[in-house]
Design goal:
The complex is a heterodimer of chains A (197) and B (205). Chain A is 73% helix and 0% strand. Chain A has one domain. Chain A is mostly helical and 197 residues long. By secondary structure, chain B is mainly α. Chain B has one domain. Chain B contains 10 helices and 2 strands; from the N terminus they run ααααααααββαα. In chain B, a hairpin with a 2-residue loop joins strand 1 and strand 2. Chain B is globular and about 60 Å long. The chains are: A mainly alpha (197), B mainly alpha (205). Chains A and B meet through helix 2, helix 4, helix 7 and helix 9 of A and helix 3, helix 5 and helix 10 of B.
């Protein structure tokens, strides 16, 4: 594969074959609790796409331009989480000033995102896999879209599930996990298509 | 005697009925990923226990000094510091395992259980009690993962801790070591435990 096509491959792989939720298990907590409602899933999903793309970009710059030259890579956990938290806080403040409508739609989800493991996970994967700047952006965007896709699909299924009869012990988390497993199985069908490290 | 009762309750609650994994299905994000091998699971779990215990004590000791508004940030930073210790220790002494665990060690930071215990318990209790609470939350979490890892490795590869247990007659269930297997195993575990709890409650009535 040519060098310039690689970011595009990473983008699609992050959505389908290496879905951050279904093959890396990240972002499960908010996935399980929020997917009850279609509307809130939509809001959170969009917020995740936005934050994931921006923070992977920011963290790339911070890691390769500040931490690596100084030789303090081991501090990356703390630094990444501060960058993410600060970014989320900033976006929240800007949105509050600029658009009432947008704030009403996304505002409540932003604090939730700081502790979403998928956001930190994307930054850590980016470092481990030695992505370039452009690759990091496409990876962040692709992972965000992948997560969005998974939570929307799950919310849609759970709407129908309300009318289904589920064994007592499986109600709530149990059945959601089983459906997630089935979704993961379905997404495994894509795995022959693309592979990234 | 009341104090001793409280200590005992603090210890047994997170292990038994209020186990964070199956009561609230929290904190499975980072650790479900490592349950395809028993060895990795045990090492990862030790890291989690270490972090929950020590971050609980530290946060509890500092709870009067931390201003309310930056509470979450301060908690996260304390947790992150302990995770860094786990990360560098693993890297130094077990580079192979460290390589396999990849980003998941760092993701202990965003494990909801640790954060949840810090918020709900360590902020309101003494360091001693927080130590017990952190320890037992960690243990409660660990044994669920070990059970899952046990079945996943055994059925997926016929091995345990890298040693062949099941002979040639066993056909490996490749699905068990892949992501769907983890989701199904956890669902089954939750189902069994909830089933037992529901039965007990009905019997109590």
């Amino acid at each position: 594969m040519s060098e310039s096509a690689y970011p595009i491959a990473i983008f699609f792989a992050a959505i389908f074959t290496n879905n951050i939720l279904l093959s890396n298990y990240l972002g499960m907590c908010s996935f399980l609790s929020v997917s009850r409602e279609l509307k809130t899933s939509l809001g959170l999903g969009i917020a995740v796409i936005f934050v994931m793309t921006s923070t992977s970009m920011l963290n790339w710059v911070v890691y390769y331009k500040i931490l690596e030259p100084l030789g303090i890579e081991y501090l990356r956990f703390i630094v990444f989480i501060i960058v993410i938290a600060a970014f989320v806080q900033l976006v929240e403040m800007i949105i509050e000033r600029v658009s009432e409508v947008l704030y009403a739609a996304l505002g409540i989800f932003l604090p939730l995102i700081t502790v979403n493991c998928a956001i930190l996970g994307v930054s850590l994967f980016m470092v481990i896999r030695d992505y370039t700047f452009v690759e990091s952006i496409t990876f962040g965007l692709g992972s965000g879209i992948g997560w969005f896709l998974a939570i929307m699909a799950m919310a849609g299924i759970r709407q129908k599930l309300k009318r289904a009869r589920i064994p007592h012990g499986l109600e709530g988390a149990g059945i959601t996990l089983i459906i997630t497993g089935m979704m993961a199985l379905a997404f495994m069908g894509f795995s022959g298509m693309l592979q990234i490290g | 005697m009341a104090a001793r009762g409280k200590i005992k309750k603090t210890f047994t609650d997170p292990i038994g009925k209020n186990n964070p994994v199956f009561a609230q299905v929290l904190g499975i994000c980072s650790t479900l990923a490592v349950t395809n091998k028993l060895e990795n699971t045990v090492i990862m779990s030790l890291g989690v226990i270490f972090t929950t215990t020590l971050s609980g004590v530290t946060i509890s000791a500092l709870r009067k000094l931390i201003p309310g508004r930056v509470r979450m940030m301060a908690e996260t930073l304390i947790i992150a510091s302990f995770v860094i210790i786990v990360d560098i220790t693993l890297r130094a002494y077990m580079p192979d395992v460290w390589q396999q665990l990849g980003p998941y060690v760092g993701l202990i930071i965003t494990n909801c259980i640790i954060m949840g215990r810090a918020e709900a318990f360590a902020m309101n209790n003494s360091p001693g009690l927080s130590l017990i609470d952190g320890l037992s939350s960690g243990i409660g979490y660990t044994y669920v993962l070990i059970v899952i890892a046990f079945f996943r490795e055994l059925m997926g590869t016929g091995e345990l801790w890298g040693i062949t247990i099941l002979g040639d007659w066993w056909t490996n269930w490749a699905i068990m070591v892949m992501p769907p297997g983890a989701f199904f195993m956890l669902a089954i575990f939750v189902w069994v435990v909830k089933g037992v709890i529901i039965k007990e409650e009905e019997a109590a009535k």
